[in-house]
Design a protein that fits this description.
single chain, seven-stranded antiparallel β-sheet, six-stranded antiparallel β-barrel
Length: 197
């Protein structure tokens, strides 16, 4: 489990095809503190460390992960948002992020304001019930607040710190992002739908 507060920005250093899956190696600022079997949230996807050294770590992505995330287009040099799993000794500064991506979507617009940026992300019809104005959402693993619910899309406001220290500054209109909707909202929605049946 994670908080959506990005610990560091890594970079993809190797991509090796393995059947229909892939093995990906990342540089990481905290690589020397990792062990095999540790969980690391990479761009919003919970991944298991299968190899590591003082400079980076390797994970293995299977077909199901590639179907549900934007990792099908992963490439060397790509920046990655990294967060280690949370511990009970730290505050929950973001929101509860499982690292289980619900779907992907694309950036519709990026608007720079005087002090920040507004990113608009498209939504499929079946995703719309999961968005609540001022609610939480994880985009590429970043805990963010929905600034505006626009029906077929939503907007998030990005502060300069988040823009600089995550991979948001590398993204452009049309890029695909990983979305994880708020777990509490998903349970409430399922409960209400089951009550109706």
């Amino acid at each position: 489990m994670f908080t959506g507060i990005i610990e560091g920005l890594g970079e993809v250093t190797a991509v090796i095809r393995s059947g229909d899956g892939i093995k990906v190696t990342y540089s990481a600022p905290f690589a020397s503190e990792l062990s095999i079997d540790d969980s690391v949230c990479v761009n919003g996807v919970c991944q298991t460390v299968i190899a590591c050294d003082s400079t980076g770590f390797t994970t293995q992505l299977v077909e199901e992960t590639l179907r549900k995330t934007n990792f099908g287009s992963v490439h060397v040099g790509q920046k990655a948002n990294l967060e280690r799993s949370m511990t009970m000794q730290h505050r929950l500064d973001g929101h509860i992020v499982q690292g289980h991506v619900d779907s992907t979507s694309r950036i519709i617009s990026i608007e720079q304001e005087d002090t920040g940026w507004l990113y608009t992300i498209g939504l499929d019809k079946e995703q719309r019930d999961y968005i609540v104005g001022r609610g939480s959402i994880a985009i590429n693993g970043i805990s963010l607040t929905v600034a505006r619910d626009l029906g077929d899309s939503f907007m998030v406001a990005i502060i300069p710190y988040t823009y600089e220290f995550t991979n948001l500054h590398t993204l452009k209109i049309g890029d695909e992002v990983n979305l994880e909707f708020d777990i509490l909202g998903k349970y409430v929605l399922k409960y209400l739908k089951n009550r109706e049946n």
